[in-house]
């Protein structure tokens, strides 16, 4: 029995922290967790899960819009934001309960308050109580970055989007990344007038340029307005008109009802008392870690968004699991960051794994690109004549697959399975040898030319 109160104290009960706590406990460690907000963290409470549910809710608009072509008459269809919002938030409550139960059933003690580092083996709770642990894991996530312009206090972040009293009639989204595009898609589908302000002429920078070009074309076709190469100069509240006025510098101020800032998320590392244990930060405020997620203090580890390696839930979970296996399971291991699949849940969604065409050309000089540009059967009945695009980038001689990128209905579902091909190091031939499943959209992947 050690002299410490616990073998492990986890700060933050989000994706990384909950997994690390549960697995460490199952390896026999005595574990406690502090959570200052709600168990589940960003993904469950105000990220992936409620976001995806809003996407599902908003997709009814399109289905209902072309249901008539399939012979359905739907009378009196109308959308009510509070109903969707409350439904989603009830499910978030349910999931929060399940996460809490999982921790409880593994014997993990939960402190529902903020914790900071008081020393290499000591945390201090907001109540003032100090607790000691042989190891401390920092899993406090990231927080929305707010740009510095006059009136930014009138703007909201993705955190507030899940609790809006009313659906904004006019929504302006600032940023061109995942969060910006997903919320633009949701509220466009729900009938809001949506505009996007992006500081460059490129959105979704980490995705394949040709796929992104298609996404942009489709989003504009669906009525989203893009103000490219612009920065918000100021936001003022027009009390009389009951709206916000956004100044982009070169036009008359644009009246909107809400401004969503989606300009990236910064590691949640400030005010954590890291200096009390010699835990160092990188230049952008991320906690410095080695391949085993160990910080510059040997007893303190960090996983997930606070380390700013890849800000995705499955990555935080893997890092938390590898930490627990390494420190308490007698199985030291690291996380592989190659070929992480990801998706943007726009409408239609896009998804990708491996190198984009530009990255592959930069790395290999010359590569082969196979593609399929097709009209999904589902869209034949739709008012949108939108086309899907699938791309496979392969090494020139061996035809080993370097990347797969796609836009079209259900792209994330299809890409998750296709990503296995990169992990397994397959070549294009393996796809050619696979019989098509007809009629499906996924069959385009084994018919690429
Ligand atoms: C709108 C949105 C949509 C997203 N969609 C996706 C998606 O579709 N797919 C995907 O893979 N990823 C998505 N993400 C990213 C994903 O949510 C994060 O990568 C993931 O949650 C990171 O997990 P984490 O454990 O590092 O931190 P978090 O899940 O953020 O957990 C950190 C926890 O620590 C708590 N905390 C912070 N400081 C303290 C303290 N001092 N004391 C006690 N508790 C503290 C916080 O309250 C929080 O609960 C999305 C994010 C957002 C914002
Ligand atoms: N589907 C998913 O997997 C998903 C969904 C949402 C979020 N996430 C994760 O959360 C992270 C954060 O999402 P995000 O969309 O906030 O970040 P992001 O990094 O994807 O995009 C940030 C955007 O903000 C712009 N920007 C930066 N500074 C700005 C400024 N001062 N003014 C105006 N624009 C500015 C950038 O050019 C970029 O377009 C993502 O990196 C991602 O890993 C994932």
Automatic annotation (TrEMBL):
Domain of life per record: Bacteria
One term of GO molecular function: glutathione-disulfide reductase (NADPH) activity
Limits of the FAD/NAD(P)-binding domain: 6-320
Residues annotated as domain Pyridine nucleotide-disulphide oxidoreductase dimerisation: 340-446
Family: Belongs to the class-I pyridine nucleotide-disulfide oxidoreductase family.
Annotated NCBIfam families: PRK06116.1
Name this polypeptide is given: Glutathione-disulfide reductase
Organism the protein comes from: Alteraurantiacibacter palmitatis
Gene field: gorA
């Amino acid at each position: 029995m050690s002299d410490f109160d616990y073998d492990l104290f986890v700060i933050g009960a989000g994706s990384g922290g909950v997994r690390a706590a549960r697995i460490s406990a199952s390896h026999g460690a005595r574990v406690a967790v502090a959570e200052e907000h709600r168990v589940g963290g960003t993904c469950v409470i105000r990220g992936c899960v409620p976001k995806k549910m809003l996407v599902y809710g908003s997709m009814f608009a399109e289905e209902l819009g072309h249901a008539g072509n399939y012979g359905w008459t739907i009378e009196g269809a109308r959308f009510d934001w509070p109903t969707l919002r409350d439904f989603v938030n009830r499910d978030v409550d349910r999931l929060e309960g399940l996460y809490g139960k999982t921790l409880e059933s593994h014997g993990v003690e939960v402190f529902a308050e903020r914790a900071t580092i008081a020393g290499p083996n000591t945390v201090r709770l907001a109540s003032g109580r100090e607790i000691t642990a042989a190891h401390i894991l920092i899993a406090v996530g990231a927080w929305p970055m707010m740009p510095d312009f006059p009136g930014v206090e009138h703007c909201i972040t993705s955190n507030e989007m899940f609790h809006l009293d009313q659906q904004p009639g006019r929504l302006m989204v600032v940023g061109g990344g995942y969060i910006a595009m997903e919320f633009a898609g949701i509220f466009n589908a729900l009938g809001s007038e949506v505009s996007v302000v992006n500081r460059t002429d490129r959105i979704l920078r980490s995705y394949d340029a040709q796929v992104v070009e298609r996404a942009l074309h489709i989003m504009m076709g669906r009525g989203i307005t893009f103000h490219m190469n612009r920065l918000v100069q100021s936001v003022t509240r027009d009390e009389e008109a009951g709206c916000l006025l956004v100044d982009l510098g070169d036009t008359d101020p644009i009246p909107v009802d809400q401004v969503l800032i989606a300009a990236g998320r910064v590691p949640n590392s400030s005010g954590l008392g890291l200096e009390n244990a010699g835990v160092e930060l990188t230049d952008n405020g991320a906690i410095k870690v080695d391949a085993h997620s160990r910080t510059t203090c040997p007893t303190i580890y960090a996983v997930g968004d606070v380390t700013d390696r890849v800000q995705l839930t499955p990555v935080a979970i893997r890092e938390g699991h590898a930490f627990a296996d390494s420190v308490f399971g007698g199985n030291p291991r690291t996380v592989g960051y190659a070929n992480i699949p990801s998706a943007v849940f726009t409408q239609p969604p896009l998804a990708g794994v491996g190198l984009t065409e530009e990255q592959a050309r930069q790395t290999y000089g010359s590569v082969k690109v196979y593609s399929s540009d097709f009209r999904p059967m589902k869209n034949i009945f739709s008012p949108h004549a939108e086309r899907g695009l699938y791309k496979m980038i392969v090494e020139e001689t061996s035809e080993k697959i370097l990347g797969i990128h796609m836009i079209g209905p259900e792209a994330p579902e299809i890409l998750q399975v296709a990503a296995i091909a990169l992990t397994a190091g397959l070549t294009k031939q393996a796809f050619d040898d696979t019989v098509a499943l007809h009629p499906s959209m996924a069959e385009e992947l084994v018919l690429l030319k």
